[in-house]
Amino acid sequence: MTAPFIIDAHAHLGPTQAFEAYHGGMDAMIAAMDLLHIETTIFSAMPSLENEFEEGYRLSIEAMERFPGRFRAYAVFNPNWLEPSMHYIERLMAHPGFAGIKIHPAMHAMDPIDARYQPLWEMADEHKLAVLAHTWSPDPAKPVQNLSVPERFAPVLERYTRLRVILGHFGGRDVGMRQAIALMNAYSHCYADLSGDCWEMGQLEWLCAQTDPSRILFGTDMNWIEGRYVFGHVLKARLSPEIKLAIFRENALRLFGG
What we know:
This protein has helices spanning 26-35, 46-49, 53-66, 82-93, 118-127, 154-159, 174-186, 203-210, 227-235, 241-256; strands spanning 6-13, 38-45, 71-76, 98-103, 130-134, 164-168, 190-193, 216-217. By secondary structure, it is an alpha/beta fold. An 8-stranded parallel sheet has the order 1-2-3-4-5-6-7-8, sandwiched between helices. Strand 3 (71-76), helix 4 (82-93) and strand 4 form a beta-alpha-beta unit. The longest helix has 16 residues, at 241-256.
């Protein structure tokens, strides 16, 4: 049997106010990871995203201590809560399992180029951190998603060249994906992950042909999304074994370290 080797660069852990997370606990997540041959999951704690910073920090530390090497954590930055965000980022950065920072402009209702994001961008640039950003396509039904369209990150990428921005969900839908491709082709410190819920046959092959596959990361969005969904897209794609391995593992190793 194949030992776990995949690195999941976009996941969540813990309870959420939005829905009942059936696989939100650590043991259930580990079981899902074993099923999908995932060695390491890099997660953001759901309580932190919902402004329960102390609980999110506690959950992150507990997961990394109980399952060393299996879990790594993003700290969460919410520009509406600057002081607690920066406090818990600094605390989590001291742990060897710290991987980067997660932001969610749509959930937190703020444009990533708003001045209140500046302390984050400056910190991330100074420390050469990875910042995973929720991105999505314009959505008339949910106007707040317009704050997360990939093109909004162009000024950040232009100004801050030592951080690495990961466009979560690859922009979400066709418009967002095309914007994500344009940013990746313009900025070598721009990455994207494959978590999402809208994939067509051959879409991954198309993405790899349009931009650099060495900056495409595997991500499931568990526990929000069924992990086997994205796993199957990569496993069955008409791509070389070398590109599949890069997406599943090697690209994340270069970005986050071993």
